[in-house]
Amino acid sequence: MSVLATKTATASKYVTLVVASLAALVPILVIVVASLKGHDELLTTGPFDAPANWLNVDNYVTAFTKGKMVQGFANTAILLLVSVTGTILIGTMAAYAIDRFTFRLKKTVVAAFLLATLVPGVTTQVATFQVINTLGLYNTRGAAIALFLGTDIVSIYIFIQFLGSIPRELDEAAVLDGANHVTIYRRIILPLLKPAIATVVIIKGIAIYNEFYIPFLYMKDTDLGVISTALYRFKGPFGAQWEVISAGVVIVIIPTLVIFLLLQRFIYNGFTSGATK
Amino acid sequence: MTDTSKSARPEPAAPPAPPAPAAAPVVAAPSAGPSARARRRRGTWGWAGTPYLFLLVPILLLVLFTYIPVGNMFWYSLTSWDGLDKTKDFVGIDNYVEVFTRPELFSVFVVSLYYLAGSFVQMALALYFATILSFSTRFRNLFKGILFFPYLINGVAIGLIFMYFFKAGGTLDTILTLIHADGLIQQWTGNPDVVNFSLAGASVWRYMGLNFVLFLGAIQSIPGQVYEAAELDGANRWHQFRYIIAPSIKPIIGLSFILAISGSLAVFEIPFIMTGGANGSTTFVIKTMSLAFQFSKVGLASAMAVVLLVIVLLLTWVQRKIVPDEKVNLT
Question: What is the pTM of this model?
Fold first, then answer.
């Protein structure tokens, strides 16, 4: 390749990267700018005009106090804690049973889990709703928790995959030392599964933080509002106040951004293994 | 679950455990238990019911939230049930006839074609950026982070971000004015001819990062020596892509196709938040939700869900016939 051609190729590579980065960032940055403007200011200036006061936090105060954001964060935190813990317990228990035991119905059980991965969750919501209703969970946190736990087969697979790479000699040594199955599960399997648990915590945690459909459909009560539904409700009272809506959007994005910056490497690995395994 | 402890026994003369890293602290079991059953064969010692106890909750949840709903859905789809009534009247295939003959019901499947087309654009972009970022690039991690981050953002926030982006006098209109392309300004989400393109565009913005990171991970797992060898043989960048990169990411592309199809049928948040399904942007999930929960037509909504399920299963089956792959065992 001639020098000129190489230079053009390199230049076009960086041009496309910069254009793509702008496409990714600009829609978010204009929201940040809008969140710093006053109501009249927003109406009279363009999206790219700088705010008069870069330190104007009025909209953030309004979003927090009138938008039930604090309650949303609290409810989301409860769901996160319970559902992620539950997913880990259920997933590791299922993986332990499937990977470390031979039992008569093993093939049937594995097939049942595999088959379920083919059914997209959204298709069955109409009927799932009736199950939740029959269990008396409608309009409770239990509905979201049950669904977060009950429809997560990917986690079980991540655990099975990882468990397969842990040598069985460890379990056998423990058996010789007189450990029972519960002890082996608690003292050997759980600690060794830590990397897989980290993956599941990340994938599941982000999914629950971002979940809108389940809380919207199953937890209509505003006091049960999670961060997504609280933000969605901004569309009503603040319908014409884009500066307040923008502040709400920024408030919701900030925790995600912080987690991403802190845990970048784990997040990339988590999503790569979550999707391919 | 505690009674299993009896089958294990302490063995005073047991040889010291082989060097078990970190996992060593094993609690001594009750000293009562009888002997020989303790170590018959790997994994088969102890009470035969133990694995079932470990599987009790997972299987209960699986049945409760996957198999019962699927079964009930088939049953509801043959009735005219409203979701509340004690009795469900059997109506045969009437609901299915309605799904295929009422254009406004079947149109939701047409809408998903926009998102399907969008996901092909998304995969092409992801493949391009994954490829160029797999070669040495300045600020590589920064670019990678920027391109991936939108995928992590809350869906409601994304919906609102793009409402602001597409609104009259919003971000997009301002950009078009700046580059003197005012003529292109549209009612981006108000015009039925344009709305699905706008929404599918927002969807590409949201999901491109995931495809990109998956592709990049697959490309980076190719050992560097392979490229070096290829370069010695005189392969240029295009040859490297065609003969090294493309074959090694085939499985992940296969997986992305399944995700693209099921994803485009399951589109919900972006259109629901941005337009509420107005102006011909109603998707499958929005339609079934309003049928079942607003208009109390659970039977009809179930029939639509069954049709969707059949479509997804068929496409998955076709995909596996075309790309019979080892690694793609999960969507």
Answer: 0.85
